[in-house]
Design goal:
It contains no helices and no strands. The protein is low in regular secondary structure. The N terminus and C terminus are likely disordered.
Amino acid sequence: MFPGPIEDDLIDIHSKHVMYPGHIEDDLIDIHSKPAMFPGPIEDDLIDIHSKHVMYPGPIEDDLIDIHSKPAMFPGPIEDDLIDIHSKHVMYPGPIEEDVIDIHSKHVMYPEPIEEDVIDIHSKHAMYPGPIEDDLVDIHSKHVMYPEPIEDDLIDIHSKHAMYPGPIEEGVIDIHSKHAMYPGPIEDDLVDIHSKHAMYPGPIEDDLIDIHSKHAMYPGPIEEGVIDIHSKPAMFLGTIVTGLIDIHPEPAIYSIETW
């Protein structure tokens, strides 16, 4: 997100590059990490975390694993079969069984055959080492992964609510949104950014588009040309009015350390 025209080198962070109005320095780390957005050329070893590698300010060591798996899913060198979670495979400390597929695809990471009910975390189900109870649904869908029945108020972290082991207060909002579990009431017009709308402190204009869909979070009407950051366009085809903020640069994952 940039309050001006996007330079040719301003590329999408969900593709193979990082969004920035200039060259990316070696130490530029992923926008899905904590730093994000930095000025300087992109070194060969600076690769996207949503691709098959991970952004790192230096050579990628064998043990440098995905940032989308909090503990990196593995405390040692990455075996040849240890592949990206956002790609077509899943991080696993051993050979990847045919049934162990991508978490962003239609399956879920699992060290054993995937039961019919164990499906993708980004799909409609949730990752679970056993049969998925009817109430155990997707974290990227409308529910949240939980090893017990999901209370009615326990909703998705990528949807309009946040993952919580108990009743969700009215003010607990999305972690991929601009906040991470907030203790204040959620206004009616405050909608999810992983849904079809964006978090906005007022009515959502027709041109207010989602960042994971076709819209983007903005405190006002979005000029034509403002596109999705999860697609390849790189967020824009024109000028972005000052105030257009991105939801992914926000280091708002401290509330889900258990992931």
